[in-house]
UniProtKB/TrEMBL annotation, chains A, B, C:
Protein name: Secondary thiamine-phosphate synthase
NCBIfam families for this protein: TIGR00149_YjbQ
PANTHER family: UNCHARACTERIZED PROTEIN YJBQ-RELATED (PTHR30615), UPF0047 PROTEIN C4A8.02C (PTHR30615:SF8)
Species per Swiss-Prot/TrEMBL record: Allosphingosinicella deserti
Entry's family note: Belongs to the UPF0047 family.
Length: 139, 139, 139
């Protein structure tokens, strides 16, 4: 049994879901592990991780619109606005989704379902460079 | 240290919470591991995982009703309805809960609290066959 | 590769976020692991775990107020009130956040971002003693 770790950088262009499955797979495939467990950890509090539908684009735009509605930008609702009106809603949307996701590796493949992709969910309006910590255990 | 992986199938009969603790324990106990880490990963985007109260049934029905309210069926609210009006709310409820849960194994037992059970949360109205990927690490 | 497990106790004084980063680090540092994966698992269904902003206090009070709003105390909304009006909202807030978080350990340090802290989110009004199960894998 062995392990490896890495930090990967993801550039986000806009608020919303950005698929990172290919970037993650590229690193995993370089590690030569057949069975194991991959962990992704998001090192930020204003973006998050999500496993979601990778086929229909309107499922993703609906999801983005939904999170904009349940944790809205609203200057009257929050005290914390150090970085603008999208600051506090970003923390809330991150709290409602996931900071970390682990996926088993079985038979040399991530055990993602057919319609599942790994997404970075950018909650800030402006482009950011984001860092995801990866840990892979296996043999 | 060693690991094992499996795919288990769960049949859901209806929308709502289905306890899977016994099915998961059955597999774990067959692996002969005393200390370790169990990971469950849900291979779908319209059902999810939840650790919840395993005693009072009304806590579960309240929880089901709550998720039906915060991510409601509403044909006017979503563009994505390829599989019917319960399609998009299913993705939203999955995003708000968990796709993956890891539980330490201590002294030969899963470290679940006294009142905690592992649940598959079916978000579609019709019965489905669901697959959960399991990974167990330990010794 | 080796592993260790522990149960740590956290006393909560009030409803809301309590930072537990220092308590967790104290245990991790005693294990002498440089690279690995730490898992925290919350053994309760009326408190939860959260990685959040550790700098601005108003981000935390905004977050507490937000969860009080989207999963409110409301005697007319829930059947389950065995332990009072804050019982069912506690389960809902726990379902919306996380029961478990895993963080990679890289170069002898948890891979938390600069502004990230580990929090126990107490959802009950009265003080409680809470137990978090820890699992550390590494070398």
């Amino acid at each position: 049994m062995r392990q490896s770790t890495a930090l990967i950088e993801i550039a986000t262009e806009r608020q919303g879901l950005k698929e990172i499955t290919a970037s993650v797979l590229r690193w995993v495939e370089g590690q030569g592990v057949g069975e194991g467990l991959l962990t992704l950890f998001c090192r930020h509090t204003s973006c998050s991780l999500l496993v979601q539908e990778n086929a229909a684009p309107d499922a993703r735009s609906d999801l983005e619109r939904y999170f904009a509605t349940i944790a809205p930008e609203d200057p009257t609702a929050y005290d914390h606005d150090d970085e603008g009106p999208d600051d506090m809603p970003a923390h809330l949307r991150a709290a409602l989704t996931a900071v970390q996701i682990s996926v088993p590796l079985i038979g040399g493949r991530l055990a993602l379902g057919t319609w599942q992709g790994l997404y970075l969910f950018e909650h800030r309006r402006r482009p950011h460079r984001r860092t995801i910590a990866l840990h892979l255990l296996g043999e």
